[in-house]
Amino acid sequence: MPDIRLGTARGRWVLLATVLGSGVALLDSTVVNVALPRLARELDASMSGLQWTVNAYTLTLAGFILLGGSLGDRYGRRRVFVVGVVWFAAASALCAAAQDVAMLAAARALQGAGGALLTPGALALIQASFAPEDRPRAVGAWSGLGGVAGAVGPLVGGWLVEAAGWRWVFLLNLPLAAVVVLVAVRRVPESAAPGPHGRFDVLGAVLAALALAGVTYALTEAPQGAFGAVVAAAAVAGVLSAAGFLNVERSRGRAHRAGGGRRGRRQVPQPMLPLELFGSRQFSAVNAVTFVMYGGMGVLFFLFVVDLQVVSGFTPVAAGTALLPVTVLMLLLSARAGALARRIGPRLPMTAGLVVAAVGMLLVGRVGAHASYVRDVLPAVAVFGLGLSAVVAPLTATVLAAVDGRHAGVASGVNNAVARTAGLLAVAAVPPLAGLTGDAYDDPAAFSGGFAASMRVCAGLLLAGAVLTVLTVRDDVLRIVPDHEREPRCTSHCAVAAPPLEPGDGGPGDGGPEAGADRQTAPPPR
Q1: Which of 101, 138, 274, 379 has the least CB density, counted as fewest CB within 10 Å?
Q2: What is the pTM of this model?
């Protein structure tokens, strides 16, 4: 039984390790975008190269994040967390040493693999270490402190790009990682999921990564005028890998439901993606909303800071802090939006939030040459942040309530992976289709037009999400929970990349639900 109290020295050490650990990955996801124009000029990269700088990381993170959670449950959450931090730091050093954009993209892919080990570990360590009565406050403290890191990160990144060069954006991870490893090894207790463990779904993870890689490559390169045998082969390989992944997951899920996961003497791995979760119409519906919503958001966060520097003439520091109001609004309003959704149902907050966020995106698309931060940028990002604040907490709560409480951790991981996959595919497809190809980042007029077109597409995605919400999301999926019983569900500082991960039953492969036994859960959907 976990017994660490929040107000003790041991509790503060655990919080320090988890906040800094997750903060390293968060900083990288927000700060790298600020550095894109500078690194593009130094490495002579095209728009395709900039897309791969972002997408290579997201691809491996989305492909392996569910497997990373299972590894922690099997071999020890602290051990895998530390391995992930070290891996992430080593890959960051390779990023800083990159001599061309191909080397940078490869190093970013390695970073994503490290992030897949690191990202699920922070909340899992809190869940496994703190006494049940202190766990909600510990998660809240982790969320708030992480939100501060998310707010400060772009400012620090912009300053580093401006004062020392883009390579220091990656080198910054090394001393932070060293502190995390030292604290985790010396002060954080080890834990693992009890009970028997099944085999890992390595084949499923590999097929998922191959599917994402093939489709992403085709979406990125075909609009650049490079459509040919290689692009066609990548597209076919991606589609076939996706079909193979679904077949493998369906077969393994059927085997576990029928006979305890054994075929003869051979144990079948538990599926990385339990497809039976999608038997819940509400779970499927909210994941569909997640896909279109985070697809649009991914493109905005990829292009906006570049637009501010290339078209509006902002410095890296000013561009990096332009979206700070979004983080502040998320921290202030997300918990209230979640409470409102539990009282009146999630449909209205999600629908209204998506519509308001779409309006914010259209306003963002109007930011062009000679833009003023106060007159043009601040109103746009404030409207977008208000809309986003109304959506994320109800969306997260609805995903968790749409499945049996035993599967909350798996459901959260699937929703997180859906969001990252959406951002990956949208960043690959939307900018080139809007005309942002070749050296567009170096041509303010061309970039401005493509950026505005991209924002219109993304606003359309959010409006499609609003329509999906009205048609498919039920208000009765959330039960009313008294305030004093409710655990924080929305770790808002993670929302710009993906919905927060919920430390649950350990994910596929952990062998049992014991790790999530103390969590307040919702009943299965009717």
Answers
A1: 379
A2: 0.85
